[in-house]
Amino acid sequence: MFARIGTPIYAPVSGVIVASADDWKGSWNRRKGFQYDSGGLGELSGNGVLLFNPIHRNYFFMIHMKDGYVDAGDLVSRGETIGTVGNTGNAISPHVKSHLHFAVKAPGIACGKENVLIAQNSYNDLRQNRDTFLAKKANNQHIIATE
């Protein structure tokens, strides 16, 4: 999701933070390209959060964050600010626009292994949430305009 660096990131669901890191160190230069030093959720991920939703039994993976405001083990509510958009990990390149890498994953079977986290297509859920948000916003504006 393209967004400016520093844009707040809100928890898409209520759940438990399984992993979180905001201490990524690395750099990029024209001569050597991407250089990883340490920290974060890993070399390519940079700073990020892995949020588990116990109701639907799926995981939300959000990476390349600038700041993370939660720690592993924290309970978060839907809509709570959990960090800000950044450009850590392999998103640090000047050739990549600032963005939040957002993935929904669920346990499944892949490569003959059980309980592997497999990416889910979240398009329909995101579209439904957007439509609900826009309808509520339009309804609130109508109420304010008639008062």
In words, what does this structure look like?
With 147 residues, this protein is an alpha+beta fold. The chain has a single domain (8-121), classed as Glucose Permease (Domain IIA), CATH 2.70.70. The protein is 16% helix and 44% strand. The protein contains 1 helix and 10 strands; from the N terminus they run ββββββββββα. The strands form 2 sheets. Strands 1, 2, 5, 6, 7, 8, 9 and 10 form an 8-stranded antiparallel sheet that branches. A two-stranded antiparallel ribbon has the order 3-4. The longest helix is centred in the C-terminal third of the chain and has 24 residues, at 123-146. The protein is globular and about 50 Å long.
